[in-house]
Fold this sequence. Notes:
Layout: H1 2-21, E1 28-30, E2 43-53, E3 62-65, E4 70-74, E5 78-89, H2 95-111, E6 114-117, E7 120-126, H3 131-141, E8 148-158, E9 163-168
Parallel strand pairs: 1-2
Antiparallel strand pairs: 2-5, 3-4, 4-9, 5-8, 6-7, 7-8
Helix pairs in contact: 1-2
Amino acid sequence: MIHEILTRYTEQLNEYLVTIHKSREGIAAVGQIGVENRETPNKLIVSLLNIERETSGGISPTISRSNNGSYSKMHPPLMLILNVILAAVYDSGRYDHSLSVLSDALAFIQTNPKFEAGGKTYTIEVVNCNMQYFNNIWTLMGSHSYPSVVCKIRNLVIDSAEIISGGRTADKPVVNTNSVN
């Protein structure tokens, strides 16, 4: 599911960037940043930083009741946020081009804050990050710092719909009004 979301968003972003830059090759790709002994891809790399839980939807188990009086208790769905980085990973001689690509990617985010993948709608938004945060990111990735932006992709819901318990409610009580004396 995560792969599908990142891949679909990157495909849409790539279509936009290829049109803007009149390129025959792809400009954006899903990938890992900071892998040792790799050539610089000269692309805008979309990479997953981490996943966090969205708690606004509640974290209590849900109980559903059917018409026949039975009920089932299920774990709440996981509502997740994907934190991704869009990094213009270009050779140092193409720094000006990397800034141009990143600027155009930001324009795409601003004009297309919603996208679809797998029949569901997701939103993407830019996150404010201070220099210490970026320093930590690039240090953990073991890479040079590249022009980049961190974004949140919202509305990912994982729900196995697995029933953890169930039962049946009591029927209406039967009261016998015919007393035998």
